[in-house]
Every structure is written in C-alpha cells, then in structure tokens.
Design brief:
0% strand; mainly alpha
C-alpha cells in the first residue's frame, strides 16, 4: 500500500544512519521497512487515540529490538546515534499523523537499545 501522507512519503527515514558507514545499509533498510510498515498500518486503520497509536509504535519498536542481532552480525550496533535517530523517526511519524502530543518515551517504551 503506497503511503498517502505527503510528509511521510517524502521522508528519507534513517538518513543519518545511511550516511554513516558504521551502519550497514542492508540492516538500515530493514529498519526503514519497519517504519514504513508502521505508517501503512496507521493509514490503513487510523488509531483513535494515543493509546491505540502507542500499541502500534510499541509493536514496531519490538521489530527494531529484533534488528539488534542483525546489526551486531554486521559489526555494528544500535548505539547512541542510532537510538536518537530511530526515536526521532518515531516522533516524526506521530506528528505526521496528528499526534503531536505523543510522549517520545511511550512511543518506544519496549525498546532494548
């Protein structure tokens, strides 16, 4: 399903990670796919409130948790720069879909990175 939100469709998700050779593109691609799938889920069934949004973002965060092993296998890890970049992308998604008041920590509450 193509993204209909123009701001989201134009967003170069995880740009800072792609620019840094420390993060392997093939693993960053998987993270970008998680974010795009989150956006598709939001557009397919818009969350009625913050609780519903948090349920979606927490599921996506769990998917990012699963990428830690892939980063490590490629000689990388989700460290400070990556953590901040990923968290910012979740904040962007919340704002882009009308949840400017979403708590950044709640969006990624189950993170292990």
């Amino acid at each position: 399903m193509p993204i209909s939100n123009e701001h989201v469709a134009a967003r170069p998700f995880l740009r800072a990670l792609y620019r840094d050779d420390y993060y392997p593109d093939h693993v960053v691609d998987r993270g970008r796919a998680v974010l795009l799938a989150l956006c598709e889920r939001i557009e397919a069934d818009p969350p009625a409130d913050l609780a519903a949004l948090y349920a979606l973002t927490r599921a996506a965060t769990e998917e990012f948790n699963g990428l830690e092993a892939a980063f490590e296998a490629a000689g990388s890890e989700i460290e400070t720069v990556a953590r901040e970049e990923i968290a910012e992308e979740f904040r962007f998604v919340a704002r882009a879909y009308g949840f400017a008041d979403a708590d950044a920590e709640e969006l990624i509450a189950p993170r292990e990175w």
